[in-house]
Amino acid sequence: MKVLSEDQCAAYERDGFISMPGLVDDAWVGRLRDTTAEFVERSRELTESNVVFDLEPSHCSERPRLRRLVSPVDLHETFWEFATASVLTDLAEDLLGTDLKFHHGKLNFKAPRGGEEVKWHQDIQFWPHTNYGPLTIGVFLSDVEAGMGNVGFIPGSHRADLFDQYDGDAWVGCLSDEDVARVDVESAVYPTGPAGSVTVHNCRTVHGSEPNLSEHERPLLLQTYAPADAFAYTDLVKRSPHGDMLIRGKPARWARHDSRPCQVGPSKVRTIFEVQQREP
Known about the structure:
globular, alpha+beta, 6 helices
């Protein structure tokens, strides 16, 4: 183990998520914040979303309101270095083994005074794989307190059902009201902590977040890793030069298949905000 204790590994296996306050050092947090600020400045020139910037409807040059920066590792070397040569990679190796792939990344912003909710959902249906090893590591780029639209994780939900995230023929990327009623959302845990705190959640774990009603932005950098023997069914990261790239160890010669079926979302790339809000 390079980062985690045996108890932390056991907690991840039991609950489907863990959190670690202040894991990322101040030097890295500073670099990530400075790089993020560059893209916020660039967004001031935009009046609508594009393949890189997902903007809130009220976004404007005087008051930028971003929902997501898409695939930041493709946009700046700092993000790629952090994803592949920092404590994050050691953390992913502790949970997934020495043969490790980077799948994709994103940066969610949660603007103050109303940053949009993310409805209860599971990740793997967005980017289905042959097994359920993939996990996502989130890094707080600012201090996070209660009421900032924190991500909530439902303990043990990764060991329960995989839910249908279609509404009829429409992909909506979230649980139906009927399925939410079957999940113990009252047990959800909403980690807080200083900038540099980290969360890790399994691809089956049910999670979501409320709007950010505070006066402070809550940027969250998310990186998804997979064991080398987990192969994607769809090509959502095909256009990324870093998508599904082996970053440690050896490539797998055999795919490992979980006996449980996996729902396959659409191959068209859209952000979770667009699909959950049913934007055209």
